[in-house]
TrEMBL record:
Family that this chain belongs to: Belongs to the PurH family.
Molecular function, one GO term: phosphoribosylaminoimidazolecarboxamide formyltransferase activity
A Gene Ontology cellular-component term: cytosol
Keyword vocabulary terms for this entry: Hydrolase, Multifunctional enzyme, Purine biosynthesis, Transferase
Pathway: Purine metabolism; IMP biosynthesis via de novo pathway; IMP from 5-formamido-1-(5-phospho-D-ribosyl)imidazole-4-carboxamide: step 1/1; Purine metabolism; IMP biosynthesis via de novo pathway; 5-formamido-1-(5-phospho-D-ribosyl)imidazole-4-carboxamide from 5-amino-1-(5-phospho-D-ribosyl)imidazole-4-carboxamide (10-formyl THF route): step 1/1
Organism the protein comes from: Candidatus Nomurabacteria bacterium GW2011_GWA1_37_20
CDD domains according to UniProt: IMPCH (cd01421)
InterPro entries listed in its UniProt record: AICAR_Tfase_dup_dom_sf (IPR024051), Cytidine_deaminase-like (IPR016193), MGS-like_dom (IPR011607), MGS-like_dom_sf (IPR036914), PurH-like (IPR002695)
Name of the featured protein: Bifunctional purine biosynthesis protein purH
Ranges of residues in domain MGS-like: 1-147
């Protein structure tokens, strides 16, 4: 089933490459809904934009922590176009469809890397962005989700060909979106697990980089037991250099992680002893 873009929600932290997408959306007569800094960016391109708060009737709350978490926005994304009850509720509450969601995530990993304070790091845990991406991906039958600037090229091609997508294309975008949110949550989880002495992101046993937008998956020799399957989420070759031996198994990586944790413990002891 082909769908056409009529309304797009655009809210991104990284504006690189966004100008071309916005111009193509405007050329295809797509209504653009946006927030804060992204809306200002779009206005500077002299392109019409609708602020989210004019739809939700709520200003950004709590220092920007709550902007898009409203039924008028999520209803527009999640309503099933072929469901009679959904459409009845949509009309009852005057909810407008959103067919395209272009959202990236706050740079949590980069904020840690630059040595930010705990408060700064916590504020870079994206809530609305992750929710929007997941909502759009869940409703891939009706919505296209673009969770990273690295999908702009494909989106640009679609917009140049009439702003319509196939179910297969939407499903692929959805899969990419869940990979992005999964990797993002993994970085946050590891930060809290190692809260007192968080390891370098480069030492984590998965590719935490959000810059690619899509993460790699490496099939392991086997899982926890020989009859089980195992996967490494990330680029294994970038994280480790295997000098010899068989292909790695899940247990090999667990042992490696334990070894790294022991090294951190010894380093911590050495560091505190050194300071005395």
């Amino acid at each position: 089933m082909l769908i056409f873009f009529h309304n797009a929600l655009v809210s991104v932290f990284n504006k690189d490459g966004l100008d071309e997408i916005i111009k193509l959306l405007n050329k295809n007569n797509v209504k653009i809904i946006s927030t804060g800094g992204t809306a200002n960016f779009i206005r500077k391109l002299d392109i019409p934009v609708t602020e989210v708060e004019t739809i939700t009737n709520f200003p950004p709350l709590f220092g920007g922590r709550v902007k898009t978490l409203q039924p008028q926005i999520f209803g527009g994304i999640l309503n099933r176009r072929d469901n009679i009850d959904d459409q009845k509720e949509k009309r009852q509450h005057k909810i407008e469809d959103i067919d395209l969601v272009i959202v990236d995530l706050y740079p949590f990993e980069e904020t840690i890397a630059k040595g930010a304070s705990e408060n700064e790091i916590i504020e870079k845990i994206d809530i609305g962005g992750v929710a929007l991406i997941r909502a759009a991906a869940k409703n891939f039958n009706n919505v296209v989700v673009i969770p990273s600037k690295h999908q702009y090229k494909k989106l640009s091609e679609i917009l140049k060909k009439g702003a319509k997508t196939s179910l297969e294309e939407r499903k692929k975008f959805a899969g990419n979106a869940f990979e992005v949110t999964s990797a993002y949550d993994s970085v946050i989880r590891r930060y809290f697990q190692n809260f007192k002495n968080p390891p370098s992101m480069s030492m984590m046993p998965f590719d935490t980089s959000m810059s690619k937008g899509i993460i790699d998956i490496t099939q392991l020799r086997y899982g926890e037991n020989p009859h089980q399957k195992g996967e490494f989420i990330g680029n294994l070759e970038e994280s480790f250099t295997q000098l010899h031996g068989k292909e790695l198994s899940y247990n090999n990586l667990i042992d490696t992680e334990a070894a790294i944790a022991i090294v951190y413990d010894f380093f911590s002891i050495w560091w505190h002893t050194r300071r005395q």
